[in-house]
# Entry
Amino acid sequence: MAKSTPSILLIYTGGTIGMMQDVRTGELKPFNFKALTKQIPELEKFDIELSSISFKHPIDSSNMHPRVWIELATIIKDNYAKYDGFVILHGSDTMSYTASALSFMLENLAKPVILTGSQLPIGIIRTDGKENLITAIEIAAAQKNNKPIVTEVCIYFEYKLHRGNRTYKYNSAHFDAFKSPNYPALAEAGVNIQYNQTALLKPSKKALSVHTQLENDIAVLKLFPGLSKKITLSILNTAGIKAVIIETFGAGNASTEEWFIQALKTAIDKGVIIYNVTQCAEGKVIQGMYETSSQLKKIGVVSGFDITFESAIAKLMYVLGKKVSFAKSKQLLETNLRGEITV
# Structure
């Protein structure tokens, strides 16, 4: 039986990659993706069926919101049976948040969802957008034995494919904008695309399940020497708060001052999840490794292990949206659900 031509759906949300420079005014504006092959003629060389959906009102990724994640997840759900893979064009500033959120929202994913973008508009001569888009499409369409090679939510940028919920944007001045500090690249594009088969998630055999209930009553408390008791208490006592991420030092360490530990304990006793995420780009939270984290573990602070901040935000929204008990929420947060943590 002859292999059918892979079909890929491009979803344009906004961002630098989709901008073209108006020849007359010099202004940057979104270009028409129906004319995509005119802008990037290299795409015509692919034996791939390309379709596109563009947001009616493309957004700057700084305006990203959970309702947009829900829209994206719904588009993928509605088109899941029609296409072999999906490529989402997205602004780079919040791309890691979106990739992380989609990884949790798209349970039992068995097809590639690749996010990409650029640091320079696609209409600029030196743009990185063309290569990023062309290779993202190639990866989304890549198959082995008529099955997709990649079956997870990823970010492709500057010759590297990363697991989306392991990334963060670390550079706004160079083309290599993203890092995955605690997990290896899934693929590297050189003369050929080399896939790291042992790092890729295995495809699910269950039917896709899309979760669109997200809860964003979350706050962040970044620790620093001299953190004010007044400010800490105001955050922890915010009306309606469901969870607080505490960005701790090193391997999950925090002040052992009595007022601070008691403030956290009081919040936990009220049902507020306290989620421990390290400020370090590499490494992980190990509660109890030092005296300065043993009390956090004792009072019920939830360990984020080596989760990125972006993924911690998305995972909390997903878990809180499930409306389960405090104990179940803690269990889910400390469980590796989509390859986001190493436990």
User: Anything to note?
Assistant: The chain has nine helices and 20 strands. Residues 7-210 form a domain with the Rossmann fold fold (CATH 3.40.50.1170). The longest helix spans residues 66-79. The chain has two domains: 7-210, 218-333.
